[in-house]
Structure formats: C-alpha cells, structure tokens
Design a protein that fits this description.
globular, Rossmann fold, two-stranded antiparallel ribbon, alpha/beta
Length: 234
C-alpha cells in the first residue's frame, strides 16, 4: 500500500514534493546525475544475484528492477576477486554507485574488514540494508546519498580506503568526473586499488598518471580493470 499524502485544498503539490514523499527525487542533480522518476520507481519487481565465493557463498542478494541498475556479472566478479585474492583480506572498501551492492558484498564475503556502500536510490538502499541484515554482515554500512555529494563531504575524512569499486551508470559521463573527484578527495591510501567497470569503447585517457593498470579485461560490451594508486613521497 502506498503512503497517503495529505494536503489542504489550496495547496499545489509539485512533482518534487511527491518524490520526497516516496523517498526519491525527480530530475537531475547539480552534477547531471539522473535521479529516478515516480514512474520509474513504482511497481518495480525484485531480482537477485548470488555471491560467488567466501563466507556468504551462494547466498542470494535481492535488488529492485531500476533503470540503469546492472549488477556486475558473475563471471566478471569471479575474475575480479581472483585478481584480488591476496589483497582483499582485512581491507577497507568503498562501493561507490553501489546499486545492488554485489561487489561490496562479495568483498565482505571474502574477508574485507569494512565496506561502505554509497547509493542514492532509496529502493536500492533499502535492498542493501535488507541484505546486510539477512547476511548478518556487521561490517557493511550503507549511505543513502549521491556519490558526488558524499565525496564532497568526505574530503577531510581521516578514513583511508584500500579498495574502491567504481561502476557508475554508463550514460552521463559520471566515470570521468568521479575519478577526478576521488583523486582530489584524498580518500585513497598509497598503494590502494581501484576497480573500474565501463563501456568497452571507452578510453583510459582521463585516468590520472599515478593510476597504474594492474589487470584489465573485456567481457561482451564491458571493459573492466584494476588500478594501483601510487603517491609520490614528499
């Protein structure tokens, strides 16, 4: 049942007010990152993926059907975490544009000490929270906020991440902008790793010079890679 919105007879109800009532916004934010509309967010069915290995192996992760939400495919996750086999244990991770949270949960399953999930869509956030509770994944925390806004607020944060997952929407050029923002936010520790998933035809020209490719591969229409973050000693 949908919540009731009570207004007086002479009150004009805007699309934004309706969106806030249901927990989502309408239109685009200042970064041009599209928020879900009412027609996109109501009457959505849930889908699921399964964790491929580790403590939560074969456990199901539910997530809503939302435009642009595309969990990383099983075979790509298996390849990525094979690359990370010797470095995931005890790592502090950041899952920006978390979506279903599949990457972050995979990291927790394989021994990460903490994963922060950043996701702006309230339905996706609720699914991540439900999955955290179902799995009793005490080291997972989800924040319902826009990734760029969160990075703005965390520029002075003392927490340093050793592994960051970047799998933003393919449309809108979010990847190039978030790379610049993440580099300037000083949240990455020296020697940390960043995973990037993007369209196959996209180019790495926008990567900072100190982001050194460790591994990369293509799967269908997707290109994905792992990058080592090097800091110059001062």
């Amino acid at each position: 049942m949908l919540p009731q919105l009570r207004v007086s007879s002479n009150t004009t109800v805007s699309a934004e007010m309706i969106g806030l009532c249901f927990g989502f916004a309408v239109g685009k934010n200042e970064y041009g990152y599209e928020r879900k509309t009412m027609t996109q967010s109501i009457n959505q069915k849930n889908n699921s993926v399964r964790i491929t290995a580790g403590e939560y192996r074969s456990r199901k992760l539910d997530f809503p059907s939302l435009e642009g939400l595309r969990p990383t495919a099983d075979r790509i996750r298996e390849t990525l975490f094979n690359w990370l086999r010797d470095s995931i244990q005890g790592e502090v991770c950041l899952d920006l544009f978390a979506g279903s949270g599949a990457l972050g949960f995979e990291a927790l399953s394989r021994g990460a000490s903490q994963v922060d999930f950043i996701e702006q869509n309230v339905m996706a956030v609720n699914s991540i929270r439900d999955n955290i509770e179902r799995l009793e994944a005490k080291h997972g925390t989800v924040y319902c906020t826009d990734a760029f806004e969160w990075l703005n607020k965390c520029t002075q944060d003392s927490k340093k991440y050793g592994l960051v997952f970047l799998d933003p929407p393919f449309k809108g050029g979010a990847l190039a902008r978030v790379i610049v923002k993440l580099e300037s936010a000083n949240l990455l520790r020296d020697g940390g790793l960043v995973y990037i998933e993007k369209k196959k035809e996209s180019i790495d020209d926008d990567l900072p010079e100190n982001w050194v490719e460790v591994k990369s591969k293509k799967a269908g229409l997707v290109q994905f890679g792992l990058y080592n973050i090097l800091r110059s000693s001062e």
